[in-house]
Amino acid sequence: MKGIFDTKRDSGYMDEIAFRYHFPKQYRTIAETLVGGWIIYREPQRNSGRRAYVATAQVVAIEDDPIKPGHAFAVIAEYQEFDEPVPFVRDGRYWEASLLSVTDPTRVGAFLQGKSIRVIPETDFAAIVREGLSETLAADNAIRLELDSKHVDGPTQELLDLPLVEQERRIEQILMNRKIREASFRRKVCDAYDNRCAITGLRIVNGGGKSEAQAAHIWSVADGGPDVVQNGIALSATVHWLFDRHLISLTDDYRILVSHNKVPSELRTLFAKQMDRIHLPEDVRLWPHPPYVARHRERFSSM
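The chain above was modelled as a monomer; its predicted structure follows.
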C-alpha cells in the first residue's frame, strides 16, 4: 500500500518526520492500512509550505500518543529526502490520479480537505519518487556520485541501467539500495557545503564533477541516524576517517574539538584553527542539527 502524508511547518503536531508522524484519531484507520508500506511526504502551500512532494519513507508501526488522547504516531523508517522538491502540479497536470477528476483547479484544496493522510495508486507513488530522485539516477551524475562502474556492483548497476519506466516498476528496490541512498545523501551534502571540506576548507573537484570532499554522517546510519543534510557534513577523506572514529567532534557553536592524545601528530596540523567555526552551508536550515552534533560529541567525550 502507498500513501501521502501532508506535513506542514509549524503545524502544532509533534512531528519529527524522519522518525515519526503525529496525527489525530480520524486518520487512524487509513494510517493502519499503510503499515509496512511506503508514503510520500507533501508540503501544502499553507504555513509557507513548498506545495511539493519532498521525501519518502516507510511506515513500520502505529503507536498511541501517551500524552495527547485521541492522537497517534506513525513510526517511520527509511526516510529519504528527494533531490529536489517535486512540484504538486507540473505543466497543469497533477501527479495524483484522484485530482484529475477535479475540473476546477480552485477546488483542489477543498477536495483535499480532511485528506492529510490518503492512499495513492502504486503508479502515482512510483512516478513521483522517480522524479524526486532524478538527479541521483541521472547517468550524467554517475561519476560525481560514485554510481559509475568502478563503484557499484552488478545488481545496483542493473537498476541504474534500466529505462525510466522500468525504474518506476522497481522503485522500492531503488529506495532500499544502500549505494543509491548514499549517492543521494552525498550529492545533497556536498552541494550544501559547496564541495568544500567543512574543517580544512579544501575544495577540489575532479573529472566528472566528483568532489574530493565526502559526505560524513554525524549520527551514523548504523546507530539509527537519518539520511538528511542536517545529519551530514562534508569532509576530506582523512578528516572523515577521524570524525567517524570520534577522534574529532564539534562544539554547540560548530567549532572543532580534537582528541590530541589520540590523533596522530602528523595530522594535528589539519586542526591549527580549531577555535574557528567550521565552514557551514549558506542556508542556515542545512546546518548540522544540534541534537545530532551533541550525540556525536558524547561519543567523542567517552573515547
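The two ends are 45 Å apart (CA to CA).
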